[in-house]
Design a protein that fits this description.
This protein has 229 residues and is of the alpha/beta class. The protein is 34% helix and 28% strand. The chain starts with a helix and ends with a strand. 24% of the residues are buried.
Length: 229
């Protein structure tokens, strides 16, 4: 009878171990998915310059103590990216209890004057910040209706992206009255008549070559026949 009992115990042992393992796994899953033991305790914001970490945290609206594994990272990212200065954001989990929000802010390429204020636009033409003073080192962009869908804005951005370092150093403002009526205002009151935004790389090289010559107006609207007067 003792030997029979031992055989029964040996036969039942694997089942008991298996049941124990399943029980432990079930308990761990419940702790991870169903309790606040591994819930969110903190939000860490990385990469802000214009925005404050608090502004990003408020936009993220992370529910504290929600199980970390159940947090919808995509929804948090979408909420953060609605902030005007944010170009893109990435959200990740940092175990055991932290949500990390990494932000890449927009970089201004020009300032659009509007009354006494200036709207900063990035290289997509998005106006994302209004400031009271023109930031040092940024050219003015004289545009009637700045925005990503505005043809004049897109033309201005194409020209700005093509400028040589020498032209950027001299540039005060870019004016786009129409897609084919682009002008650059340089220091000392000099003007570059650009025409449209086609062949901008060639026009930039031609205009740069003429900077050393006397003359108030450089015309590169027809890059094969440039003039200075």
């Amino acid at each position: 009878m003792a030997r029979a009992r031992q055989r029964r115990l040996r036969a039942a042992l694997p089942w008991a171990v298996g049941a124990g393992v399943v029980g432990v796994l079930a308990l761990l899953a419940w702790m991870v998915y169903g309790t606040a033991v591994l819930g969110v305790r903190a939000v860490r914001v990385v990469g802000t310059q214009v925005l404050s970490p608090l502004q990003v945290e408020q936009a993220a609206s992370v529910r504290m103590r929600e199980p970390l594994v159940r947090v919808d990272l995509g929804a948090i990212r979408d909420r953060v990216q609605r902030l005007a200065p944010v170009d893109r954001a990435a959200v990740s989990r940092s175990w055991p209890a932290t949500i990390v929000v990494q932000v890449v802010e927009r970089v201004p390429v020009a300032a659009v004057p509007s009354g006494k204020e200036f709207t900063l636009i990035d290289d997509d033409g998005v106006g994302y910040r209004v400031v009271a003073e023109r930031p040092s080192g940024l050219p003015l962009a004289r545009l009637a209706a700045p925005g990503p869908a505005d043809v004049n804005t897109r033309a201005a951005l194409t020209v700005l992206a093509a400028l040589t370092p020498q032209l950027r150093e001299q540039l005060v403002a870019i004016s786009v009255e129409a897609p084919a009526r682009i002008k650059l205002l340089l220091r000392a009151g000099r003007t570059v008549v650009w025409g449209d935004d086609t062949a901008s790389d060639t026009k930039a090289q031609e205009a740069t070559a003429l900077l050393r010559r006397d003359g108030a107006t450089i015309d590169v609207s027809a890059p094969n026949v440039v003039t200075i007067r």
